[in-house]
Inverse folding.
Protein backbone atom coordinates (compact mmCIF):
# COMPACT_ATOMS: atom_id res chain seq x y z
CA UNK A 1 0.00 0.00 0.00
CA UNK A 2 1.26 3.49 -0.74
CA UNK A 3 2.16 6.18 1.82
CA UNK A 4 1.23 9.86 1.65
CA UNK A 5 2.58 12.48 4.07
CA UNK A 6 2.66 10.46 7.28
CA UNK A 7 -0.33 8.34 6.35
CA UNK A 8 -0.57 5.01 4.62
CA UNK A 9 -3.43 3.57 2.66
CA UNK A 10 -4.89 0.67 4.62
CA UNK A 11 -7.90 -0.19 2.47
CA UNK A 12 -10.40 1.15 0.02
CA UNK A 13 -13.47 2.32 1.91
CA UNK A 14 -15.94 0.23 -0.17
CA UNK A 15 -14.00 -2.91 0.84
CA UNK A 16 -14.70 -2.26 4.52
CA UNK A 17 -18.19 -3.54 5.19
CA UNK A 18 -19.83 -3.34 8.61
CA UNK A 19 -17.96 -5.43 11.16
CA UNK A 20 -14.42 -6.67 11.66
CA UNK A 21 -11.58 -6.76 9.15
CA UNK A 22 -8.00 -7.91 9.56
CA UNK A 23 -5.16 -6.16 7.74
CA UNK A 24 -1.45 -6.78 7.70
CA UNK A 25 0.54 -3.53 7.60
CA UNK A 26 4.27 -4.14 7.68
CA UNK A 27 4.79 -6.44 10.66
CA UNK A 28 1.54 -5.47 12.37
CA UNK A 29 -1.79 -7.24 12.38
CA UNK A 30 -4.41 -4.50 12.47
CA UNK A 31 -8.12 -4.78 13.14
CA UNK A 32 -10.43 -2.36 11.37
CA UNK A 33 -13.90 -2.06 12.83
CA UNK A 34 -16.70 -0.43 10.90
CA UNK A 35 -19.80 0.50 12.85
CA UNK A 36 -22.13 2.69 10.86
CA UNK A 37 -20.05 5.53 9.45
CA UNK A 38 -17.36 5.12 12.10
CA UNK A 39 -14.13 3.24 11.39
CA UNK A 40 -11.81 2.30 14.22
CA UNK A 41 -8.35 0.73 14.02
CA UNK A 42 -6.59 -1.25 16.73
CA UNK A 43 -4.18 -4.09 17.23
CA UNK A 44 -5.46 -7.21 15.60
CA UNK A 45 -4.11 -9.83 18.00
CA UNK A 46 -5.39 -10.36 21.52
CA UNK A 47 -2.78 -9.47 24.18
CA UNK A 48 -3.56 -12.71 26.03
CA UNK A 49 -2.43 -15.46 23.65
CA UNK A 50 -2.67 -13.66 20.33
CA UNK A 51 -5.98 -14.85 18.96
CA UNK A 52 -7.08 -13.06 15.81
CA UNK A 53 -9.57 -10.48 17.01
CA UNK A 54 -11.16 -10.26 13.57
CA UNK A 55 -12.72 -13.61 14.45
CA UNK A 56 -14.29 -12.12 17.58
CA UNK A 57 -17.64 -10.48 18.08
CA UNK A 58 -18.92 -7.02 18.99
CA UNK A 59 -21.80 -6.70 21.39
CA UNK A 60 -24.47 -4.01 21.55
CA UNK A 61 -22.62 -2.15 24.34
CA UNK A 62 -19.51 -1.64 22.22
CA UNK A 63 -17.27 -4.40 23.55
CA UNK A 64 -15.14 -6.62 21.36
CA UNK A 65 -15.05 -10.22 22.60
CA UNK A 66 -11.97 -12.28 21.85
CA UNK A 67 -12.85 -15.51 20.05
CA UNK A 68 -10.50 -17.72 22.08
CA UNK A 69 -11.01 -17.15 25.80
CA UNK A 70 -13.62 -14.40 25.68
CA UNK A 71 -11.72 -11.49 27.22
CA UNK A 72 -13.49 -8.31 26.17
CA UNK A 73 -12.15 -4.93 25.12
CA UNK A 74 -13.99 -1.63 24.95
CA UNK A 75 -13.93 -0.34 21.40
CA UNK A 76 -13.91 3.28 22.55
CA UNK A 77 -10.50 3.09 24.23
CA UNK A 78 -9.26 -0.50 23.97
CA UNK A 79 -9.57 -1.09 27.73
CA UNK A 80 -9.90 -4.67 28.93
CA UNK A 81 -13.11 -5.54 30.73
CA UNK A 82 -13.50 -6.92 34.23
CA UNK A 83 -12.25 -10.40 35.06
CA UNK A 84 -9.03 -9.98 33.11
CA UNK A 85 -5.80 -8.07 33.65
CA UNK A 86 -4.57 -7.35 30.15
CA UNK A 87 -3.16 -4.21 28.57
CA UNK A 88 -5.54 -2.15 26.46
CA UNK A 89 -5.60 -2.77 22.76
CA UNK A 90 -3.33 -0.37 20.92
CA UNK A 91 -5.51 2.01 18.95
CA UNK A 92 -4.65 3.96 15.83
CA UNK A 93 -5.99 7.17 14.41
CA UNK A 94 -8.01 6.70 11.24
CA UNK A 95 -8.64 9.11 8.40
CA UNK A 96 -10.77 8.66 5.33
CA UNK A 97 -9.82 10.60 2.22
CA UNK A 98 -10.72 10.13 -1.41
CA UNK A 99 -12.48 6.88 -0.65
CA UNK A 100 -9.47 5.37 1.09
CA UNK A 101 -8.96 4.40 4.73
CA UNK A 102 -5.66 5.83 5.98
CA UNK A 103 -3.62 4.91 9.04
CA UNK A 104 -0.54 6.64 10.46
CA UNK A 105 2.79 5.88 8.80
CA UNK A 106 4.66 4.75 10.76
CA UNK A 107 1.89 2.94 12.59
CA UNK A 108 1.96 4.68 15.97
CA UNK A 109 -0.66 3.98 18.66
CA UNK A 110 -2.70 6.89 20.01
CA UNK A 111 -3.07 5.25 23.44
S1 LIG B 1 -6.44 -15.13 23.42
FE1 LIG B 1 -7.90 -13.57 23.77
S2 LIG B 1 -8.69 -13.99 25.72
FE2 LIG B 1 -7.18 -15.53 25.42
Amino acid sequence: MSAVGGWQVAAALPEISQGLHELILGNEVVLLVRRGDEILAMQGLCPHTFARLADGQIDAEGWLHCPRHKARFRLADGACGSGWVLPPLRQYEVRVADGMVLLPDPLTPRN
